[in-house]
From TrEMBL:
This is Bifunctional protein FolD. Its EC number is 1.5.1.5, 3.5.4.9. It comes from Sphingobium vermicomposti. Residues 138-283 form the Tetrahydrofolate dehydrogenase/cyclohydrolase NAD(P)-binding domain. Belongs to the tetrahydrofolate dehydrogenase/cyclohydrolase family. PANTHER family: C-1-TETRAHYDROFOLATE SYNTHASE, CYTOPLASMIC (PTHR48099:SF5), C-1-TETRAHYDROFOLATE SYNTHASE, CYTOPLASMIC-RELATED (PTHR48099). The keyword Acyltransferase does not apply. NADP(+) binds at G164, K165, S166, I189, I230. The gene is folD. Gene3D superfamilies: Leucine Dehydrogenase, chain A, domain 1, NAD(P)-binding Rossmann-like Domain. Keywords: Amino-acid biosynthesis, Histidine biosynthesis, Hydrolase, Methionine biosynthesis, Multifunctional enzyme, NADP, One-carbon metabolism, Oxidoreductase, Purine biosynthesis. One of its GO terms (biological process) is methionine biosynthetic process.
Amino acid sequence: MSELIDGREIARAVTADTAEMVAQLKARGIAPALAVVLVGDDPASDVYVRRKISECGKAGIRSIERRLPAECDEQSLLTLIDALNEDRSVHGILVQLPLPAGIDSMKILDRISPEKDVDGFHPVNVGRLSTGTGGLVPCTPLGIMLLLDTVIDDYRGLNVVVVGKSNIVGKPVAMLLLEREATVTVTHIETRNLPDIARGADVIVAAAGAPHLVRGYWVKPGAIVIDVGITRVVEHDGTTRLVGDCATHELGHARAVTPVPGGVGPMTIACLLKNTAIAAERQA
Ligand code: GUN
């Protein structure tokens, strides 16, 4: 049987380290604070934002929630970001995505001060990541690396297949893996022969948002599989269930896999707290 990589337990350890870092910052008179901005009332975004805010407390981070109505104009969101950028008591700013239609996400992300961009989505941080020159690293890719670090010592020359080319996961995790000198293939919806490509992988990072896309026959024996997908599906009896991008029940021959839920998800939030502490430290 494959090993299950316990994201909840590893996330707790990351958050304990962050709490330690926060305590040291507080001893120096710096109280790390994260502002979370939610526009509109998308139920999934609402759940994520609540969770992010409630987790802040576990690391001793102050959280500030700012909500704007779905029909707000772009300018009022920009004005809010300007105020948070100016506020020296705020160290991290997160604008929950997706934003309502009519608001230009890139323009909004561009406005967040790169030093406070705890999501790592600002072009300056994207550029720093792609050149390996520091900056704030997106939370999910950072969390994926911390999970992989528990089962991989040396990435050099490993064949890694990333399924999905999103700006939030696929592209940045590919950059982090390249920094560690893995051989990285990024695949996407137009990729041909995806199962054949995946079968060559020592590590698969599945981040397509397509339930059970990665099947057992895609995975070579002994491979490591990170499942980033989390889709709510409705069963025949009307109940709902969270499903990942991998058919995990077919992956008994893998070396290690992450469960859904309880794998990558908790790591994303733990890394958000970690990034907030790092941002506070750098602003000190
Ligand atoms: N929506 C889905 N994932 C994310 C994320 O990592 N950060 C933000 N801000 N919004 C998201």
